[in-house]
Amino acid sequence: MTSTVPALGTRTAEGSALQAVLLDMDGTLVDTEGFWWDVEVEVFASLGHTLDESWRHVVVGGPMTRSAGFLIEATGADIGLDELTVLLNDGFEERIGRALPLMPGAGRLLAELYEYEIPTALVSASHRRIIDRVLASLGAHHFHLSVAGDEVPRTKPHPDPYLAAAAGLGADPARCAVIEDTATGVAAAEAAGCRVVAVPSVAPIQPALRRTVVSSLEEVDLTFLHGLMTEMR
């Protein structure tokens, strides 16, 4: 389930309530939410169907089984879920092979977390084959482990991926800061009991208890994350 790097460091600001940082991938660290939609549009066009733009908000951020299943039902396309999943993953992998743009502030945040040896996990609803391709570009050394959507019994919006990441890092979920871009991911993190920073990518997300909303990762640094956890005390 995990991709590991050397043992956790000790420079995590002793006394801080922050034990780990758990990060979503698509739309949070890499600017790829639009890639998924473009691939879905292309695949269904090849099947003779046009996707309604309003469906984009339905499929964003969720597990592929949910997104693909919804699109099959909505279009009536004559294709099975397993076959469609392969086509979508193939198309997305080809797309990120051409370009993988980072979200603003992502590179700087990852470098800071690595410098201060903050236990960090990549937690995505994408499949392992996709995560490993992205990790090669992001730098696997930035993460102590990663959790893929096809490696847990239930993926987002269920809490399983974030509970697995916290357990893998030996952290209390309540002392983990999660950074997410969609309502689906936020729901998963909150169900796991984590403190959430939402950076909306496609659809708006409202602030709530234990949830802070920012417009960009450029607003998020280690001081900011420590401050969020201190507010909980």
Detailed description of the structure:
The protein has a six-stranded parallel beta sheet, with helices on both faces. Helix 6 links the parallel strand 2 and strand 3 (145-147). It has helices at residues 33-46, 56-59, 64-75, 81-98, 106-115, 128-138, 160-169, 183-191, 222-231; strands spanning 20-23, 120-123, 145-147, 176-180, 195-198, 211-213. The protein contains nine helices and six strands, in the order E-H-H-H-H-H-E-H-E-H-E-H-E-E-H. The chain is globular and about 55 Å long. It is of the alpha/beta class and 233 residues long.
Summarize the entry for a quick read.
With 233 residues, this protein is of the alpha/beta class. 42% of the residues lie in helices and 10% in strands. InterPro entries: HAD-like_sf, HAD-SF_hydro_IA, HAD_sf, PGP-like_dom2.
Q: What are the salient characteristics of this protein?
A:
single chain; alpha/beta; six-stranded parallel beta sheet; 10% strand; disordered N terminus; PGP-like_dom2; HAD family phosphatase; HAD_sf; HAD-SF_hydro_IA
**Largest sheet entry:** 6 strands, parallel
Q: Structural class given helices, strands, pairing?
A: alpha/beta
Mean of residue pLDDT values: 89
User: pLDDT under 50 segments (min length 5)?
Assistant: 1-14
Strand content: 5-15%
Radius of gyration: 17 Å
* Percent in helix: 40-55%
Anisotropy-based shape? globular
Q: Helix and strand string, N-terminal first? A: EHHHHHEHEHEHEEH
Strands in their spatial order, largest beta sheet: 3-2-1-4-5-6
What's the total number of strands? Answer: 6
| Count of DSSP H/I helices | 9
Give the N-terminus to C-terminus distance in angstroms. 33 Å
InterPro entries: HAD-like_sf (IPR036412), HAD-SF_hydro_IA (IPR006439), HAD_sf (IPR023214), PGP-like_dom2 (IPR023198)
Pfam family, one: Hydrolase
Protein name: HAD family phosphatase
